[in-house]
Design brief:
Layout lengths: L3 H15 L6 H19 L3 H21 L4 H16 L3
């Protein structure tokens, strides 16, 4: 599997972040940081990035739990991101 689906998921999540005014500043920054880290993993694959990838997937999974009740659409997008990362072997 190539990274097209992953890039699409990331773009969709960025779009949701821009159009979700109910998200508090701390949560928004946390999400942006995680998404940026994942984008870096995709753009510059290396041995170090391969080791960091499972940690990033875990961070996204934690975010899903955090946002599930208050931001279900965002949580669904994050679940989709975790699934895509798994399909890529990350």
């Amino acid at each position: 599997m190539d990274t097209t689906d992953l890039r699409s998921n990331l773009a969709s999540l960025h779009q949701q972040l821009t159009h979700n005014p109910a998200l508090d500043a701390e949560s928004r920054q946390l999400l942006l940081t995680v998404l940026h880290d994942i984008e870096q993993l995709v753009q510059q694959p290396s041995a170090g990035a391969a080791l960091a990838a499972p940690a990033e997937r875990h961070r996204v999974t934690e975010l899903v739990a955090r946002f599930d009740a208050d931001h279900p659409t965002l949580a669904a997008g994050l679940r989709q991101l975790v699934d895509t990362l798994g399909k890529l072997g990350i």
